[in-house]
Amino acid sequence: MKILIACEESQAVCKAFRAKGHEAYSCDILESSGGHPEWHIQGDVLAQLDKGWDMMIAHPPCTYLSNAGATWLFPKKVLNQARYTLGLKAKDFFVQLLTAPIARICIENPVQSKIFEIEKYTQIIQPYQFGHPYSKKTCLWLKNLPLLTSTDILNKYTQFVSSGSACRRGIKSNQMKMGSSERSKTFPGIANAMADQWG
Ligand SMILES: C[S@@+](CC[C@H](N)C(=O)[O-])C[C@H]1O[C@@H](n2cnc3c(N)ncnc32)[C@H](O)[C@@H]1O
Fold first, then answer.
1. Could you report the per-residue pLDDT of 138-164, keeping only the tens digit for each?
2. Which residues in the chain land under pLDDT 70?
3. Which atom of ligand 1 has the smallest separation from the CA of 10?
4. How far is the CA of 90 from the CAs of 86, 142, 147, in angstroms?
């Protein structure tokens, strides 16, 4: 299949589908860091949506949509209009991906703030269901794809938090602290499950 991995610079999902023999390309406004620039399209993914893909897996930015960022939306219980406007722009991007003219679609994002009224996710997955000892609630919006099935469930895991939010909230000893760009990279166990089950 011809598969577009939207908003991916790490190439984690792209490489998992390539290993299964698919013609997969990552696309990001950033250069790829996955070691295969020949499988990477650098630029705005919206310009790629009508290029005849069989499947798209997308990881759009979540900074202005996520529920975790909601405290910034209502500082002192008053709506921050500038941040809300950025959130609406991010919603527009998300919806363009969700309604792309592609037969099979998976969009991945954290739990979103209800204020943006985006359609409900299809399922929630966790890294600890795919062999990584971390919790990080991840929502999937699926179109014409079956639910992703756990591959290796771990019972011991720690919370995965970005260093920014750890500083704000006070890091706890049972939390794994990462920079935000590291934190946003797809776990290989989840990428492999997608390629095995959907490829
Ligand atoms: C939450 S991160 C996802 C990273 C991904 N999980 C990975 O492993 O590389 C969102 C990504 O979307 C990219 N991005 C933002 N706007 C974009 C656009 N219009 N077209 C393509 N990529 C975009 C960002 O550069 C960033 O790498």
1. 999 999 999 999 999 999 999 987 544
2. 162-183
3. 9
4. 6, 19, 25
* Protein residue with least CA distance to atom 19, ligand 1: 44
pLDDT at residue number 163? 47
Token output for 93: 């991007």
For ligand 1, atom 10: residue with the closest CA: 61
Ligand 1 neighbours, Cβ below 6 Å, are 7-10, 12, 27-30, 44-46, 59, 61-62, 184-186
Q: What is the pLDDT of residues 170-185, one digit of tens each?
A: 445 455 555 556 667 8
Q: Which numbered atom of ligand 1 lies nearest the CA of 8?
A: 9
pTM of the entire predicted model: 0.91
Q: Compute, in angstroms, the gap from residue 146 CA to the centroid of ligand 1.
A: 24
Q: Which atom of ligand 1 is nearest to the CA of 62?
A: 1
Residues recorded for the chain? 199
Strand partners, 158: 134
Gyration radius from the chain CA atoms? 17
Distance between CA atoms of residues 134 and 138, nearest Å: 12
